[in-house]
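ARCHIVE CARD
Drawer: 12
Card no.: 0347
Subject: one protein chain, sequence and derived structure
Cross-reference: see card 0346
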Amino acid sequence: ASAIIDAEAVINKFPELEGSRLMRNSVEFVNNMPRPRFIKTHLPFHMLPRELRDGKTQAKIIYVSRNPKDTCVSFYHFAQHNAFKGSFEEFCLLFLTDR
């Protein structure tokens, strides 16, 4: 927890559709959100709703891309909390070979 950032407030204001509490009925959750809605996702573009991909809505998309080195380090720490027991060097090899 941070004294500067209220993580729960950020999560509530910018929900992630893949989050466990939304997985059961994300459409209903989004429909009930106040406007304007800000939603973040890790979904690839081709998995977004067709209306959004085809530009048939007024929705805006902001695409954020990270430096692959930063992504690897961040993913390594995430994997350590989820049972990965290897070294950073081993993880980098797996990351670079897309395993």
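Annotation on reverse: The two ends are 32 Å apart (CA to CA). The first helix runs from residue 7 to 13.
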